Amino acid sequence: MAITKVWIEEDCIACGGCEGICPEVFTVSDKSTVNEGVDLSAYESEIEEAAENCPVSVIKYE
Question: Which of 21, 29, 34, 57 is packed most tightly, with the most Cβ within 10 A?
Fold first, then answer.
């Protein structure tokens, strides 16, 4: 199943881990954000890895 939506829930600590794993999808400043206009299906494994490695478990996708 292709990933069609990615979001960051509240309580992001801006650790930078997600951006380190997949800078094409995530950008970190004062908190992590999802870059708009990205073909999420091209980065499914990286999105899943970022979500699994998030220390506060705030990266969600469907």
Answer: 21
